From TrEMBL:
This is Photolyase/cryptochrome alpha/beta domain-containing protein. Its cofactor is FAD. Belongs to the DNA photolyase class-1 family. Keywords: FAD, Flavoprotein. The keyword Flavoprotein applies. Coiled coil: none annotated. Residues 537-556 are annotated as: Disordered. Residues 25-163 form the Photolyase/cryptochrome alpha/beta domain. Pfam families: DNA_photolyase, FAD_binding_7. It comes from the Eukaryota. PROSITE patterns: PHR_CRY_ALPHA_BETA.
Length: 593
């Protein structure tokens, strides 16, 4: 099985790790993420000196079991597109393992309990799995390691899902995560593993031993999991290491495109051939090694005269990924507003009807609704499209809590990643990292500048396919005769806008200005009573619009962007923010788009 793709790195065969000695005749390779053969140090070590290797994946009910109460088909935590992508990745991994003389052992149940049962049944002396910083797996690993420690079983859990070990970066920073991209880069430096080629091929693996009484099956289908016959449009992106490597090869073969990649440039309306790599779901599940991807990019950079650099380059997007992983790992309650020391405390509105309209593509803004249809049907959209709908939900128009939007993305995206998803919702809602809440994505003009004819909208919202381009982004402005000719009556066939952008965005800015002022006054230590009081004040001001406008002008009317950045971020962080503001409006790594 040859997985070599980089232009100048030779494939290597399995060789002994001089730092680790094999300690038993049998090993378990526990797959969670890292669903690949290439650059898999846990798999490599599991095979060293072992007569048998048991490659195990546990079907976790909390992730895979059908939930009839969820707003879309799928489990409690994941939509069917992502579950299907995972199953395809497992089938591909099983195929690869069989070519190497092994196979994937599928079990079902609470992963910790299942794994401990397997350890007891098979009598292995080594347990190997890729280190994971997600809180769920951190808690799970503690439970498993308690058993292995008592049982005298060696555990090998290398960091290979990210370029750097987040714990190392935090340690170098005095026990705290770096809170800016530039400070992260200074602390991280070059990856230590970059000086030597990564293992990209394995010639064979030890066979699977006797599984005893453990219940083992083949990779299940969607129907096997209890979903029955599902009628829905599936994502066009197929899961698995083979597909990941194929897509990577296509990307790195275009040296000019790699060298000139520059975020946030790119067309979010392209869908037949997306404007980016679409490698994020493969990175999310570890079908593609981020280290291998980074190494391949460095090979391209060495063979071109000039190339872009972080934070805008393609390698820079991988570093953004590591940045969010590091901050998330070192920040308690990173996935919520309350108890999160990095997060502005803001009295977001709570409106289930507006949330449902946004989630179900019924906002009346075709650019926003088309993106949400693509999210639901494909499980993926361009990073600038993500920016648009996240801004619309939070600081731009609806003023709804970023956690509500985060939950929708977490469920529907095939590349949903705990650290990156939460980090970007914090960023895009101006709750953390990025604080220029006056910079808003227009739900009308932003999409129009990329796709004036509205082809993206016509594809994902066919009800508007005959609407003239003059009205495609604002169909409520079309005269009745035009609407009838287009067979789309606004308010009947397609909804009227749930809010009007000009007035709604002004309201959002006013509310955020008040919230920022209170956060600054109380040094971010807002109680629930403080938030409730501010919410009541904001609601009262809505009923008396003239005084609020005068007060707002008095507060911020003469504040320059430089002064604003220094005020909200401190001098050094304000200067850094200004230095990258022109090309990094939001932090979603461009790999998913």
């Amino acid at each position: 099985m040859q997985l070599l793709l980089c232009l100048s790195k030779p494939a290597q065969h399995l060789k002994k790790n001089p730092l680790m000695a094999a300690s038993g005749s049998g090993s378990i390779m526990w797959f969670r993420k890292g669903l690949r053969i290439h650059d898999n140090p846990a798999l490599e070590y599991a095979s060293k000196g072992s007569d048998f290797v048991y490659p195990v994946f546990v079907i976790d009910p909390h992730y895979m079991e059908p939930d009839p109460k969820a707003f879309s088909p799928g489990s409690k935590l994941a939509g069917l597109n992502r579950i299907r992508f995972l199953l395809e990745s497992l089938v591909d991994l099983d195929t690869s393992l069989k070519k190497l003389g092994s196979r994937l052992l599928i079990s079902k149940g609470e992963p910790g309990q299942v794994l401990i049962q397997c350890l007891k049944e098979w009598g292995v002396k080594k347990l190997c799995f890729e280190h994971d910083t997600d809180p769920y797996y951190q808690a799970l690993d503690i439970k498993v390691k308690e058993y292995t420690s008592a049982a005298g079983i060696e555990v090998f859990s290398p960091v290979s899902h990210t370029l750097f070990n987040p714990a190392d970066i935090i340690q170098r920073n005095g026990g705290k995560p770096p809170l800016t991209y530039q400070s992260f880069l200074k602390l991280a430096g070059q990856p230590s593993w970059l000086s030597s080629p990564l293992l990209t091929s394995i010639s064979s693996l030890p066979p699977v031993g006797d599984v005893g009484s453990c219940e083992i099956s083949e990779v299940p289908t969607i129907k096997d999991l209890g979903y029955g016959d599902i009628e829905q449009e599936w994502t066009p992106f197929r899961g698995g290491e083979s597909e990941a490597l194929k897509r990577l090869k296509e990307s790195v073969s275009d040296k000019n495109w790699i060298a000139n990649f520059e975020k946030p440039k790119g067309n979010p309306s392209l869908f037949v051939k997306p404007a980016t790599t679409v490698l994020s779901p493969y990175l999310k599940f570890g079908c593609l090694s981020s280290r291998y991807f980074y190494q391949c990019l460095q090979d391209v950079y060495k063979n071109v005269q000039k190339h872009t650099s972080p934070p805008v380059s393609l390698a820079g997007q991988l570093l953004w990924r590591d940045f969010f992983y590091t901050v998330a790992f070192g920040t308690p309650n990173f996935d919520r507003m309350k108890g999160n020391k990095l997060c502005k405390q803001i009295p977001w509105n709570d409106d289930d009807e507006l949330l449902a309209a946004w989630r179900e593509a019924r906002t009346g803004y075709p650019w926003i609704d088309a993106i949400m249809v693509q999210l639901r049907t494909w499980g993926w959209m361009h990073h600038l499209a993500r920016h648009s709908v996240a801004c619309f939900l939070t600081r731009g128009d609806l003023f709804l809590h970023w956690e509500r939007g985060r939950d929708v993305f977490e469920r529907l995206l095939i590349d949903s990643d705990w650290a990156i998803n939460n980090g970007n919702w914090l960023w895009l809602s101006c709750s953390s990292f990025f604080y220029q809440y006056n910079r808003i994505y227009s739900p009308i003009s932003f999409g129009k500048k990329y796709d004036p004819n509205g082809n993206y909208i016509r594809h994902f919202l066919p009800v508007l396919k005959d609407m003239p381009k003059e009205y495609i982004y604002e169909p409520w402005t079309a005269p009745p005769g035009i609407q009838r000719k287009a067979k789309c009556i606004i308010g009947r066939d397609y909804p009227k806008p749930v809010v009007y952008h000009d007035s709604a965005s002004k309201e959002c800015k006013r509310k955020l200005a008040e919230a920022y002022a209170l956060n600054q006054k109380l040094n971010g230590q807002l109680s629930q009573e403080d938030l409730d009081s501010l919410r009541r004040k904001l609601e009262q001001d809505e009923e008396d619009p003239e005084p609020k406008i005068r007060r707002q002008r008095q507060k911020v009317g003469h504040l320059t962007s430089q002064d604003f950045c220094k005020t909200i971020s401190g001098g050094k962080r304000g200067r850094e923010l200004m230095s990258i503001l022109d090309f990094i409006d939001s932090g979603w790594p461009s790999l998913e788009a």
